[in-house]
Design a protein that fits this description.
The chain is built from 14 helices and 13 strands. It is α/β, with parallel strands linked by helices. Strand 3, helix 4 and strand 4 form a beta-alpha-beta unit. It is globular, with a radius of gyration of 22 Å. The structure holds pyridoxal-5'-phosphate.
Length: 406
């Protein structure tokens, strides 16, 4: 199997699997108990909290809360901060290309009376700091901008946005602060992320995107921000999230993020080379193909290309038959046939958005994997174009813009 879908999830690495096994078997105690093994389990959680803290440049371990997923961290952060600050403003700013966990949570808050400004993106899926500047109002309480897009890999100008918000917040005073929420789930472990250097206030991360297990997340909450309890119960996570801790998952997440960050320079260098190789050779091998996302400001492990005149599902099935796991840009997982909201927001016509393919590398990806892809993929595209009504039409009309009615 050739796995090129590391933006969807990653394989748990051996060191992480080992520590998980340890805390599920030998050291299985409940961290709230008082005997020695329990202290070991509690120690594992403390260690993981410090590992996450250090990996993202946070000041204190107490700024890290463990949760049950990236989506949970996102939901909790946005709902809690919105509710706690509703008395002074109900305006939230976000972008059109956020993950559904952010967009759908904000839709929910809209129903509760909040007002959401969704900033449009440019053709590369980026927003500018000026767009944020111009959208800010006296009643703005949250700016939510993702670090890097999970579909096309584009990185947002997070540093500039953070700097601008800091300036504004200095003028507005601490009782009228605009909170900077940044979904860094695709970024941590792949590119440098430092919450203090970037002035980020709330930042969700997820273990399974960086060689940890599924079902564990964390939320960075800058000191001084009050969080409503997410789950009432025992005093776990300082009374904010009751329930006996997922010790194995938390220990795994701590180690996974520590290792990913420690190896980041090497992985990035390798992935940048693979990325260049794959983009150049795919575009060269297949006519009528175009790169999606920003040509430079993109994650090192992410490639997204549109192949005109064909459907993403067909590509995925034929790739699967060759043992290659990839993903289309489209949101077909939710059972809808709508093309990806990200590609649509970038201004791509429906017909083209449907023909997009996302290939994302992991730490095990080698050039040979890409060569295998490059060997089989041109034939797949040819086959699909042969049965495509759009392709047939194009042969007749000879101009894609005319075909798309532009
Ligand atoms: C995967 C992902 C999420 C959701 O994280 P889960 O842990 O799967 O809930 C949110 N945002 C982005 C950008 C992601 O890539």
């Amino acid at each position: 199997m050739i796995y090129l879908d590391n933006a969807a999830t990653t394989r748990v690495r051996p060191e992480v699997l080992e520590i998980m096994t340890e805390y599920l078997s030998d050291n299985f105690a409940n961290p709230s108990s008082i005997y020695a093994p329990a202290r070991g389990a509690k120690g594992a959680i403390d260690t993981a909290r410090e590992q996450v803290q250090k990996a993202i440049g946070a000041d204190r371990p107490a700024e890290i809360f463990f949760t049950g997923s990236g989506s949970e961290s996102i939901n909790w952060a946005l709902k809690s901060v919105a509710t706690q600050n509703a008395h002074r403003g109900k305006h939230i700013i976000t972008t059109a290309v956020e993950h559904p966990a952010v967009l759908v949570t904000l839709q929910h808050l809209e129903k509760e009376g909040f007002e959401v400004t969704i900033l449009p993106v440019d053709e590369f899926a980026q927003i500018s700091v000026d767009q944020v500047k111009n959208a800010i109002r006296p009643d703005t309480i949250i700016v939510a901008v993702m670090f890097a897009n999970n579909e096309v890999g584009t990185m947002m100008p997070i540093s500039e946005i953070g700097t601008h918000l800091k300036q504004i917040n200095d003028e507005r005073g601490k009782d009228n602060k605009i909170y900077f929420f940044c979904d860094a789930i695709q970024a941590v472990g792949r590119v440098p992320v430092d919450v203090n250097a970037l002035n980020i206030d709330l930042m969700p991360i997820s273990a399974h995107k960086m060689y940890g297990p599924k079902g564990v997340g964390a939320l960075y909450v800058r000191r001084g921000i009050k969080m409503q309890p997410l789950i009432h119960g025992g005093g776990q996570e300082r009374g904010r999230r009751g329930g006996t801790e997922n010790v194995a998952g938390i220990a795994a997440m701590g180690l996974a993020v520590e290792l990913a960050v420690a190896e980041m320079d090497d992985t990035t260098k390798k992935h940048r080379e693979l990325q260049k190789y794959l983009i150049e050779n795919t575009l060269k091998a297949i006519p009528h193909s175009r790169l999606n996302g920003h040509p430079e400001h993109r994650l090192p492990n992410s490639v997204n290309i549109t192949f005109e005149f064909i459907e993403g599902e067909g590509m995925l099935l034929l790739l699967d038959s060759k043992g290659i796991c990839a993903s289309s840009g489209s949101a077909c997982t939710s059972g809808s046939l709508d093309p990806s909201h990200v590609l649509m927001a970038m201004g791509m016509p429906h017909e083209l958005a449907h023909g997009s393919l996302r290939l994302t590398f992991g730490r095990d990806t080698e050039k040979a994997d890409l060569d295998k892809f490059l060997e089989v993929f041109p034939t797949i595209v040819e086959r699909l174009r042969q049965i495509s009504p759009l392709w047939e039409e194009f042969q007749r009309v000879g101009n894609i813009d005319a075909l798309l009615g532009k």
